[in-house]
Amino acid sequence: MITCVVHYTIDPGKIEAFERFGRCWMELVGRHGGTHHGYFLPAEGASDLALALFSFPGLAAYERYRELFGVDADFVAADRIRDESGCVVRYERTFMRPLLPEDVAPETGPKQ
Predict the structure, then answer these.
(1) Which whole number is the average pLDDT over 59-88?
(2) 3 state SS of 101
(3) What distances in angstroms separate CA 3 from CA 44, 53, 56, one per listed residue?
(4) Taking a C-beta distance cutoff of 8 angstroms, is the pair 50, 10 a contact?
(5) Maximal C-alpha separation, the chain
(6) Which InterPro entries does this chain map to (predicted)?
(7) Average pLDDT of 19-45?
(8) Number of domains within the chain
């Protein structure tokens, strides 16, 4: 499994547009073989940081999904929300490999 972590700098005054953008991408990831773990938005205080996490079974599956960028009408429409609203100032992607609770064997727990 490969997990993409996207770090966003957003315009806090355009959070509603960012939420619309996020809802579209959550649906698209799911439709094309991935699992979206959600968008994490500022909750308190002034902040311009947001995160998104989504996983694909492997890099090949992620690359098939990426081939649709700029080509598939639904992908173009989702990006149009971002571009026309200006809700995203910048973003960067990082790929990670998750270690999940079900991956931890009982014998590796804390020693007493």
Answers:
(1) 92
(2) helix
(3) 27, 7, 7
(4) yes
(5) 57
(6) Dimeric_a/b-barrel, NIPSNAP
(7) 93
(8) 1
Per-residue model confidence (pLDDT) at position 44: 82
Average pLDDT over residues 30-42: 94
Nearest to 39 by CA among 99, 88, 106: 88
- Tell me how far apart the alpha carbons of residues 43 and 32 are, in angstroms, rounded to a whole number: 29
Decide: 51 and 6 in contact? Cβ < 8 Å. yes
The two tokens of residue 94 are 């990082």
* CATH number, residue 48: 3.30.70.100
Residue 110 located in a structural domain: no
Which two structure tokens, joined as six digits, stand for 65? 């999904």
Q: Is residue 46 part of a domain?
A: yes
- Determine the Cα–Cα distance for residues 83 and 88; give it in Å rounded to an integer: 8
Is residue 28 helix, strand or coil?
helix
Query: What is the residue range of 82's domain?
Result: 2-96
